[in-house]
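User: Can you help me understand a structure? I only have the sequence.
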Amino acid sequence: AIILLISLFNRFSSDIFNCCGCEITGKEYLVASHILPWGKSNAEQKVDPNNGLLLCPNHDFLFDSLLDRKS
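Assistant: Let's start by predicting it. Here is the structure, written out as tokens:
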């Protein structure tokens, strides 16, 4: 799971608006997701740009489901 997270994170860039999990593009179709969940983050982590991924709604749901199972 950690390798998957690193792989997804390496594809994230604020200059490239496409899903980290597939080829869906366009800001209107993407969700900004936190890697470390908002509720478990301190104030600094909540605004850290390195704590985020751009995902389509389907991959956002799968990513959140994966994190829920690990916690």
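Now, to help you interpret it: The first strand starts at residue 31 and ends at 34. Helices lie at 2-10, 43-46, 57-70. Let me know which part you'd like to focus on.
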